[in-house]
Amino acid sequence: MKIDMHCHTKEGSLDGKVPIEEYIRLLRDQGFGGMLVTDHDSYGGYRQWKNHIKGRRYEDFHVFKGVEYDTLDAGHIIVIMPENIKLRLLELRGIPVQMLIPIVHNYGGVLGPAHPCGEKFMSFMNAKAYKRNPDILNEFDFMEVFNACEPVEVNEKARKVAEEYGLVGTGGSDAHKADCVGLAYTQIPDHITCESQLIDYIKSKPSMDCGGTIYRNTTKEKMGKAKTFMTHSFWVYNKIGGWSKAIKRSSK
């Protein structure tokens, strides 16, 4: 079964332009059997599917619950939790990665860096946590080795890192717009129909077939040099988020 393991929806991501039902239709039309919803620090898109679509339409299509979590010091991390686990914490951005990893594992989940060799601050290999302690890579369960919104050389570097550390490689479109949907895939067995089964499969360390086509219409390509400002803005965004949480915790 072909699935997209990096999907942003209008209902769950502030920068998402594609409603989840449209996302499903687009993927089904391209021969996909499922998707992992990975909205930014939110399960909004997944909830829209679960509360309004599941069991009513698209019963031949599997929607898996995930999140693209904005850490304080390690960029974007894709997290998949068992279907019976609800962690509100994963919708509150800004946890340091060395706190995030044991939380996810203790509750039976798996996690791995999204676009690990991409932009500074947003990508693990170019973030503070990796530079401080590269061995953190050994604590991840998988790594995104093909991202349709990253250049070829960036994906190739990610694939080499995953191979070096023995991490399962995944592929996802990272689509925020309709014309990017379906540009990346990961092949998984047809019998996988829920998050727990997907987690168990990843833990078995399979050699997963993944790949796709590079998207040439990303916002960062259009911005050119201005993308440097965008990446530094992300750093400030997460720093402020982390400080505000620390203040709230200390006042309780």
TrEMBL record:
Chain ranges of the Polymerase/histidinol phosphatase N-terminal domain: 3-73
Q: Which Pfam families match?
A: PHP, PHP_C
Q: Which CDD domains match?
A: PHP_HisPPase
Gene Ontology terms, MF aspect: 5'-3' DNA exonuclease activity; 5'-3' RNA exonuclease activity
Family annotation (SMART domains): POLIIIAc (SM00481)
This protein is called what? PHP domain-containing protein
Query: What species does this protein belong to?
Result: Candidatus Scybalocola faecigallinarum
